[in-house]
Design a protein that fits this description.
Layout: H1 2-17, H2 22-35, H3 49-52, H4 54-57, H5 59-77, H6 79-91, H7 95-110, H8 115-132, H9 138-152, H10 160-173, H11 183-204, H12 215-218, E1 225-230, H13 241-244, E2 253-259, E3 262-264, E4 278-282, H14 285-295, E5 297-299, E6 319-323, H15 340-344, E7 346-353, E8 356-358, E9 372-377, H16 379-386, E10 392-393, H17 407-422, H18 425-436, H19 451-464, H20 472-476, H21 479-497, H22 500-509, H23 517-532, H24 537-555, H25 559-571, H26 581-587, H27 594-620
Antiparallel strand pairs: 1-4, 1-5, 2-3, 2-4, 6-9, 6-10, 7-8, 7-9
Keywords: Membrane, Repeat, Transmembrane, Transmembrane helix, Transport
Protein name: SLC13 family permease
Domain RCK C-terminal: 213-297, 307-391
């Protein structure tokens, strides 16, 4: 038991510090459980090799994998973006309408498409709504993330956490969730949370990003941008842009070359410099002065706005924000080691990481999930970035390439995935048998299709109908989420089998001497929310559910009510930007500080803790 607690402590430290990616941490946990649980060696965790690797074959893991593919199919049709643009036309420049559009699109849709890709799809749409409506994106992006969490609690498939919790509930209580198990409470949470965001929440949000967007001023990089002219006797004459500056010795980049009133941006690496060329540099003042003294350059001023960085002849924007999601090849890499500039002919001018704006020594900084890069590139390079699942470009491309002709197919497939699970086949069979007198209809009562089967069938249908190409199904999967699930599921098993859940349950059950069952349920909701704020929501479910069930058993309460409280709390983590992936998606584009999430999320978390706990007691009883 102590060994399992030690492994949990190691996992918590690694989740919080991010010394290792979360999926690698989960695999480490799995390895430790198996190494310390091999019969005949030490057997300290009671986890065999078969149990240790069971997460990969677990129905929750496979179901989440299938749902990610289905969500990708929906996004390929552009239906979410199209709805978002129609809502944009409705919203105009009225903040209340913009909030209603944001919540009205992201909330309901997140009940039927995994809420993480919904936010990834809508970040550019909502950012454009804000800019066109003369509103700071900071007022809309946290509501986007929070509303997607509300919507994720409308159905079983709204979030991977629900699917995982259902699997754990089936194992512990032999009571999995049905498709619409908690929809009635989910609707209440969505309505109450939406009212809060539209009346109180947005007033607590500062305008971190200026209404009149200008990236140069927003990222405060004026002092890091300098124009210099190549003198007639400069040693740079005849060298290429790539070779002109020793990037080992100088933290500087040549962003543009202006020659005879013509401006050139990436790719300019092989352009040969001539006397009289104006070079636009990204470097701090001391570095610029060293270059001027050493390379015979003449200072020519500083660009002060984004317009000065975008060539007049460029048909589209050349400056964009790019968010790094989980699964991106950039995560854990630096700009230098990832060869980002060479791959995409793009230059990073600055980036935001966990609320900090980084402007110097960027090449060596490790990129983390949720970091937002300010990128300068040619329009075609930006198009390539927007079409790559490794990035979320915070503005929609001018002419997005969607398979709109496949919208009916994708919609019908998702309806089938949900419908075949939701239909009460036993009731239908009995009713038909009674109406027709045909006993064969009674066989329908034996038909029970789990979400795993319908989701996999939906994947096949997506490919067969051309909604997805076969090669796209592998790119659609967030493999870090899959490995996280596979690695963390055995930890919950070890907590049960070693008696760790019994011990912790007994400690929490002691509060029953001072609190009624409703109070203990509320404590579980709050504690799960706090834990989810610092570790993965899926990890918090795996750790907390066995303890919740044991606590309920010891105080004589309904254990399923406690399962639901943990599930709701883990799926609605508002307190920090790192507790839920959708928060990380909006962290950079909204220009938020860490405390912005606490300021808006803490009252919301407290409000919904009361609403959810009372709702559970009313609908399912204690």
């Amino acid at each position: 038991m102590l060994v399992v607690f030690g492994i949990i402590l190691i996992a918590l430290v690694l989740f919080v510090t991010e010394w290792l990616p979360i999926d690698v941490t989960a695999i480490l946990v799995m390895v430790l459980l198996m190494v310390l649980g091999v019969d005949g060696v030490v057997n300290l965790t009671e986890i065999s090799t078969t149990e240790g690797t069971s997460g990969f074959s677990n129905s929750a893991t496979i179901t989440v994998l299938a749902m990610l593919i289905l969500s990708s199919g929906i996004s390929q049709t552009g239906v979410v973006q199209i709805i978002g643009r129609k809502m944009s036309a409705f919203a105009g420049d009225d903040l209340d309408k913009q909030l209603l559009a944001t919540i009205g699109v992201s909330g309901p849709i997140s009940g039927f498409i995994n809420n993480t890709p919904v936010v990834a799809i809508l970040v550019p749409v909502i950012s454009d709504i804000a800019h066109k409506g003369k509103t700071s994106p900071s007022k809309l992006l946290i509501p986007l993330s929070y509303a997607s969490m509300f919507g994720g609690m409308l159905t079983l498939i709204g979030t991977s956490t629900n699917i995982l919790a259902s699997d754990v509930s089936a194992r512990l209580l032999d009571q999995p969730f049905s498709m619409f198990e908690f929809t009635q409470l989910g609707i209440i949470v969505l309505v109450v949370g939406s009212i809060y965001l539209m009346t109180v929440g947005h007033r607590l949000l500062p305008e971190r990003v200026p209404v009149d967007e200008d990236y140069v001023q927003e990222y405060a990089i004026e002092e890091y941008l300098t124009d210099v002219v190549v003198d007639d006797d400069s040693p740079l004459i005849g060298s290429t842009v790539d070779d002109a500056i020793d990037r080992v010795a100088f933290d500087a980049n040549i962003l543009q070359v202006v020659r005879d009133s013509e401006e050139f941006i990436e790719p300019i690496g092989q352009k040969t410099l001539r006397a009289g060329d104006l070079l636009r540099l990204r470097a701090d003042r001391p570095t610029v002065q060293q270059l001027v003294d050493r390379e015979t350059l003449t200072l020519a001023g500083n660009p002060q706005t984004a317009d000065e960085l975008e060539p007049e002849e460029a048909p589209d924007r050349t400056l964009v924000e790019v968010v790094v999601p989980r699964g991106s090849f950039l995560v854990g890499e630096s700009l230098e080691s990832s060869t980002f500039r060479q791959r995409y002919d793009a230059t990073v001018l600055a980036f935001r990481s966990r609320g900090e704006t980084v402007r110097t020594n960027m090449d060596e900084r490790r990129i983390r999930v949720g970091d937002t890069l300010l990128v300068q590139a040619a329009p075609d390079s930006i198009d390539r970035l927007s079409q790559n699942d490794d990035f979320i470009v915070a503005h929609e491309p001018e002419e997005p390439d969607y398979r709109t002709e496949k919208i009916p197919h994708a919609t019908a497939i998702m309806a089938g995935v949900v419908g075949f699970v939701a239909v009460p086949w036993g009731t239908v069979g009995s009713a038909l048998a009674g109406m027709t007198g045909i006993g064969a209809f009674d066989a329908l009562s034996a038909l029970s299709l789990p979400i795993l089967v319908t989701a996999l069938a939906g994947v096949v249908a997506m490919v067969a109908t051309g909604v997805l190409r076969p090669t796209e199904i592998y790119d659609a999967v967030e493999w870090d989420v899959i490995f996280l699930l596979a690695g963390i599921i055995p930890l919950g098993m070890a907590l049960e089998q070693t008696g760790g859940a019994d011990l912790l349950g007994s400690l929490v059950a002691a509060t029953g001497a001072y609190l009624p069952a409703l109070g203990v349920l509320w404590v579980f909701y709050l504690s799960t929310g706090l834990i989810t704020g610092v570790i993965s929501n899926n990890a918090s479910v795996v750790l907390m559910l066995p303890i919740a069930v044991e606590t309920a058993s010891q105080i004589g309460a309904n254990p399923f009510a406690f399962v639901l409280a943990v599930t709701f709390a883990a799926s609605t983590a508002f307190l920090t930007p790192v507790g839920y992936q959708t928060n990380l998606f909006v962290y950079g584009p909204g220009g938020y500080k860490f405390m912005d999430f606490v300021r808006v999320g803490a009252p919301l978390q407290l409000l919904l803790s009361v609403v959810t706990v009372l709702g559970i007691a009313f609908f399912w009883g204690l």
